[in-house]
Every structure is written in structure tokens, then in C-alpha cells.
Amino acid sequence: MSLLRVENLSVSRQKRIVVDRVSFTIGEGEFVGLIGPNGAGKSTLLRALLAQLPYQGSVTLNGQESAQLKSVKRAQFLSYIAQDREISWNMRVEAVVQLGRLARLPQFSGLSKEDQHQITSAIEALEITHLRDKSARELSGGEQARVLIARAIAQDTPLMLADEPVAGLDPAHQLGLMQIFRELSASGRSIICTLHDLGLAARWCTRLLLLKDGCLVADGTPADILKEDVIRDLYGVEVFRTQTPDGLIIQPTHIVR
User: Of which family is this protein a member (predicted)?
Assistant: First the structure.
């Protein structure tokens, strides 16, 4: 059974169709990049999968319709990294990461050894151990982003949705996060991640979904999807493209006039 099955998904906002009859499935161990130009419907699609927006069609998580699941059940299966990652709560960093375990805690119960293991592992993976006792509200934007990513990883769900997770991170932490996602997918968890950086999408994702004007126009490997003519038509840029022992390299070079 697929972790996620999307069939003829459509979302309208302010009487305008933003996602138009999109269908795809996600299996175990996939690191899927959701790409497309601004306004293609990427963030709206993720929010529909979370049942945060009304939709037409079907979204099933492990065989159950997403909109019909109780929020706790959905949170046990699906975690989410939102695009807006400003933390306004006056909480310690470790306490914010602990929130990722709430959906798994029995009522009136404290953190188990497994809970604490997941929390510590996520904190260490995002390299925020030195921040764990600081107030999250006092951190920089990039540090806050890493805290919220750690919270989602600590949630330990079969499927994770991430909306532009590398935004605000420096190059080293961007690469580190892509490595973490690749390792999670290798362990059997699946990630759907919106990306504007085609170089990261090419180098790290195992599969790409390409949206244009709310429609899914391509679904395949980075090597199959990220061709020069496709990028030129979709984004209006020329790119340098080469295959290396470390993977496919894509670098935009100039705007097509």
C-alpha cells in the first residue's frame, strides 16, 4: 500500500483554481522534490495534503482519507515544516523540539526513553545542541528554522512534508539538511520537499514532481526532468548541466530574453 495516494486533487482559492486535478502516489523511502515556478501551486498542494485547505478529489494517507482523520492520528503519520518558520513562543529550544512528540504521548504521560532519544537525535542532527537551553525566540532566523525542522524530525512520522526547508539556511546547513533527508529516506521514511534551488533538487532528490499553473506536468528522476529545454521553458533561464560522480549538477547561468 502507498503511504500517500493523491487522485484528481483540485484546490480553489478566491474562485481561482490553484491546484488542478493532480494525481500521484508516494511509496516508502522516497525523497521527492516538488518543483515549479512561483505561483505554480506547490505550497497550496502541501496544505491540501494536510487537510488545512478544502479540496476536491482524494488524499489518502496509508489508505485513509486525510480530511477524515483526527488531527492526532494525522500527526502520527504526517509531519510538516511550514514555510513561515518564525518562533514567537518564549520556550526553550529543547521544549520546542519536544512538541514533535506530543501526538505520540498517552494522556497524562511524560516523555519515555524513546521520546527523549528521538528529541536528542533530532537536536544533534540539526547541530543545535549548544542552543537547547536558550529561548527559541532569541535565535536568528536560520537557527529558528533549524529548531522547527528538528521538531518535525523528532515527530518520527512515515511521511514528512517540507515547504522550502532550506530557505534562510547557509550553504553548509542546506547541504546538511539535504543529507539528513536522504538518510531518512534511505531508512524508509518519505519526504516531499518544495524546492526552488534546482541544484539541490538535482543532487539530492530521488524523484521530482513538476508543477506548472497548478497542473502536474512531469514526474520522474532528476536526470529525466531537469533537461535544459524544460528548465528554459518553465523558468526562463539557461543552465549549466553536467553529470558528475557525485550526481547531477544544475546551475542557472542567465535569463532568457
Answer: Belongs to the ABC transporter superfamily.
